[in-house]
């Protein structure tokens, strides 16, 4: 590769790598702005800031969607709402490090579920990688000694399962195939926000978004804007820009470093102290998910050659980089 080509590749890779960094830090940001009483309010505010921008940016293509595509995106939005609820409540009840690493199990759960749906057999290397990741989570949740996983750990595990369901539904639903990714993301987020608004209107679900916003200090507003502007808008448009200049596999590989940054941010900035068992768990999760991504690629490529689907809405993880929908699923 020439020096000029290498420089261009680096300039394309850098924004995607920054997306992985901000996603890794999003768990700390969510902890900085959210309490058990403000989860729904924060979700409404965060995506209430994002939605108008997405609508304006993609208005023409939004109007071009068919009714079937809109309904399909709406269904995906309901799943997305469940992911956000599990993740955000989970983050409140666990550490930023645990949240970022446990949710990375989506990269392991997705090919397992995919293989069950297709009736294919997982490779031995992938099974070993999955086992390594699960062992890492077990150690991570123990901290300095053996104990039951926290409520937050279990909620994050549920969020990883929900993400897997979302990825598979996104790649299998014929009604959303061929749809513009910006439009699909906008409708999904809109559906999710409607769920949050309905829930926050119910008694006993916490304060209203307006009350929460009035109580925010400068620091909380900065965290909220960071989640909205960088972890959502910047991440979405950076992916769309990069995937048009490089390969989806390269984008996916760079985004796969998210759990590394989650661990770095959680331990260095949030002051998380996972203990020796936890640190060993961190290393096992990072090794297992990285190994699992590599092991899943040749198997998925073989399946795709044998059974082409014609889908243009690719699974976000682990075998392809979704060009827009993946962004919405971040905490």
Automatic annotation (TrEMBL):
Membrane topology of the entry: Multi-pass membrane protein
Positions of transmembrane segments: 40-59, 71-89, 95-113, 125-145, 221-241, 276-296
Residue span of region Disordered: 306-331
Keywords: Cell membrane, Membrane, Transmembrane, Transmembrane helix
Pfam families according to UniProt: EamA
Main location per the UniProt record: membrane
EamA domain ranges (all copies): 14-141, 151-290
Subcellular location: Cell membrane
Family to which the UniProt record says this protein belongs: Belongs to the EamA transporter family.
PANTHER family associated with the record: EAMA DOMAIN-CONTAINING PROTEIN, OS03G0707200 PROTEIN-RELATED
Protein name: DMT family transporter
Originating species: Streptomyces filamentosus
């Amino acid at each position: 590769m020439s020096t000029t080509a290498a420089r261009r590749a680096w300039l394309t890779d850098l924004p995607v790598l920054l997306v992985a960094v901000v996603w890794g830090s999003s768990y700390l940001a969510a902890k900085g702005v959210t309490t058990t009483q403000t989860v729904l309010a924060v979700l409404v505010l965060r995506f209430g800031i994002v939605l108008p921008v997405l609508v304006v940016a993609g208005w023409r293509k939004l109007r071009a969607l068919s009714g079937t595509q809109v309904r399909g995106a709406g269904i995906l939005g309901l799943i997305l709402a469940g992911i956000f609820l599990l993740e955000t409540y989970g983050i409140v009840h666990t550490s930023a490090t645990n949240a970022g690493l446990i949710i990375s199990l989506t990269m392991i759960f997705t090919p397992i579920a995919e293989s069950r749906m297709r009736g294919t057999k997982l490779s031995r290397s992938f099974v070993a990688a999955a086992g390594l990741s699960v062992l890492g989570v077990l150690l991570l949740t123990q901290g300095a000694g053996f104990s039951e996983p926290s409520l937050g750990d279990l909620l994050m595990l549920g969020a990883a399962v929900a993400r897997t369901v979302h990825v598979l539904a996104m790649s299998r639903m014929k009604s959303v195939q061929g749809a513009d990714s910006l439009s699909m993301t906008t409708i999904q987020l809109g559906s999710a926000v409607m769920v949050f608004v309905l829930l926050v209107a119910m008694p006993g679900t916490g304060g209203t978004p307006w009350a929460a916003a009035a109580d925010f200090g400068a620091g909380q507003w900065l965290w909220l804007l960071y989640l909205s502007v960088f972890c959502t808008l910047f991440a979405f448009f950076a992916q769309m820009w990069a995937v048009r200049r490089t390969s989806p596999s390269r984008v996916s590989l760079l985004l796969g470093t998210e759990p590394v940054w989650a661990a770095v941010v959680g331990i260095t900035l949030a002051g998380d102290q996972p203990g020796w068992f936890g640190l060993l768990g961190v290393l096992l999760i990072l090794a297992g998910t990285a190994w699992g991504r590599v092991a899943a690629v040749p198997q998925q490529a073989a399946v795709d050659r044998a059974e082409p689907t014609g889908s243009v809405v690719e699974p976000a993880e682990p075998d392809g980089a979704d060009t827009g929908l993946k962004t919405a699923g971040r905490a």
